[in-house]
Design goal:
about 10% strand, lipid metabolism, about 500 residues, Lysophosphatidylcholine acyltransferase 1, lysophosphatidic acid acyltransferase activity, LPCAT1-like, 2 domains
Length: about 500
């Protein structure tokens, strides 16, 4: 599968993964801090959080979720007390000096603050400093102690069990944003998830749908050892807390950028509005834009013996099939049915019209783009089996062996259950997201080196016995070894025995 020329993919470092490596000096320092400073800090942080709870609970009594009542003197006192307590809590956690650049706009000027990058639960610091509202899942309200503090800032709750949740959330954001400053500002993290700050992923449109001015806010953690990043692959929540509390000092910078006033075109196109604000914030942060979204995280973090090697073309494919409406309803049953129909075609090539008919869809620009991804020879014809393999790969990226089994069902001989070497190469090209796979090393390592076919069970057993199967037995265009055709002994001067 190839990437289209119309949309070059910009995917560098995986933003959903974070790895920590310590020097011996750092390990010794963490060890000493773990038995001295860490217990004291943890005790103080816990005490201050518990101390904040009665203030938040009292201030929340009798409040309406739909109307903002006048800020009485006693509520102002409680609000000030909470800010002081929360700032003391962060101070005890090692965030001694928080540098603030720029000036926060008034709610009447910019009802929405867009904050990025979102990389840690320590991003709650600017929330507690401003007491702005946030958008959060309803389940957050039931978290002991912290849930009461969240409820105090009058968040916009997302009901994930409600199918109409997205529309209701957007409507509530619009209602508050258009109140003329009556409601507190809403602080929104438009990335929608935590990343490692290596780049800004695609923004969700929620903050930009109202079409009102927003104030971009950028966060920086300029510490030498990054212990604050908490994302999908890497240290867990408690390990992050432990390591951060073991640092002598945790610097943080909050910068309020100038208010961004949308143009008429941006007001009518929230996606354009969001992307232009993202570009502005990326420039301020001096980080690249990454064409990944929250929905792409599973593909970029695929697991298994045949995990995706290069996910650039598969990410583009995934976005296109979402637009076609084929991705949302893709279940194992649907994939099996598509594979059964594809097998019946016995490798017959499909034009774009035939492709549209296969899925009972009209011929559109998006469908034509998807079709072109699999047009290997540039003759306007594709093998539908390639599409089914790609769809299975992006639908269940961590179940690569199930995708491989599905592919064998479409290609295997009815008599022997075997797949030809060149057909298996095509399967791997799509599953791994690579080009020009060559399998001589694999087939020469089998019991019968002259064999040019293989069954699913034989391949499965071989992969189980060789955990580094992709790196050791496949050759492809972007392989670290590059190409090494012919006998395996010619690769890097090393001889590869079938028993290795």
């Amino acid at each position: 599968m190839k990437s289209s020329d119309s949309r070059p993919s910009r995917v560098g470092r995986n933003p959903f993964a974070h790895e920590l490596n310590f020097t011996m000096t750092e390990k010794i320092k963490i060890g000493l801090m773990s038995v001295t400073v860490f217990p004291v800090r943890l005790l103080l942080v816990s005490f201050l959080m518990l101390l904040a709870w009665p203030f938040a609970f009292t201030a929340s009594l009798g409040r309406s979720e739909f109307v903002v009542e006048p800020q009485s003197l006693w509520r102002r006192f409680l609000d000030l007390s909470l800010r002081v307590i929360m700032r003391a809590m962060w101070f005890c956690g090692g965030f001694h000096w928080i540098k603030v650049k720029g000036e926060r706009a008034a709610p009447s000027e910019a009802p929405i603050l867009t904050v990025a990058p979102h990389s840690s639960y320590f991003d709650a610091i600017p929330v507690t400093m401003t007491m702005c509202s946030i958008v959060t899942k309803l389940e957050s309200r039931s978290i002991p102690v912290w849930g009461t503090l969240i409820s105090y800032i009058r968040p916009v709750f997302v009901f994930r069990s409600d199918q109409d949740s997205r529309r209701k959330t957007v409507e509530e954001i619009k209602r508050r944003a258009r109140s003329g400053g009556e409601w507190p500002q809403i602080m929104i993290f438009p990335e929608g998830t935590c990343t490692n700050r290596s780049g800004l992923i695609l923004y969700k449109a929620g903050a930009f749908i109202p079409g009102l001015p927003v104030q971009p806010v950028v966060l920086r953690y300029p510490n030498k050892l990054d212990t604050v990043t908490w994302t999908w692959q890497g240290p867990g929540a408690f390990k992050i807390l432990w390591l951060t509390l073991c640092q002598l000092h945790n610097p943080m910078e909050i910068e309020y950028l100038p208010i961004y006033h949308p143009s008429k075109e941006e007001k009518e196109n929230p996606a354009l509005f969001a992307n232009n604000v993202r570009k502005l914030m990326a420039k301020a942060l001096d980080v690249p834009l990454t064409d990944l979204s929250f929905d792409d995280r599973e593909i970029s973090l695929s697991q298994g013996p045949l995990r995706i090697y290069d996910y650039s073309s598969l990410l583009e494919f995934n976005q296109l099939v979402y637009r076609l409406g084929l991705r949302a309803g893709t279940t194992e049953k649907v994939l099996e049915e598509q594979a059964r129909r594809a097998r019946k075609l016995q490798g017959d090539m499909l034009s774009v019209e035939d492709f549209a008919q296969f899925f009972n869809l009209p011929v559109t620009d998006t469908l034509t783009q998807v079709h072109s991804l699999f047009d290997q020879h540039g003759d306007g014809q594709i093998d539908i089996r390639h599409f089914v393999i790609a769809l299975s790969t992006v639908s269940r990226p961590s179940k690569s062996m199930e995708t491989l089994k599905l592919a064998f069902k479409m290609y295997e001989s009815e008599e022997s259950g075997e797949v030809l070497e060149e057909e298996l190469a095509s399967i791997f090209e799509i599953m791994l997201g690579v080009e020009e796979v060559e399998l001589s090393v694999l087939f020469l390592s089998l019991e019968d080196p002259d064999k040019e076919k293989i069954t699913y069970d034989e391949l499965c057993d071989f992969i189980e016995q060789h955990p580094r199967f992709v790196m050791d037995y496949l050759n492809f265009k972007t392989h670290p070894r590059k190409f090494c055709f012919g006998r395996p002994k010619s690769c890097n001067g090393q001889k590869h025995d079938k028993d290795n």
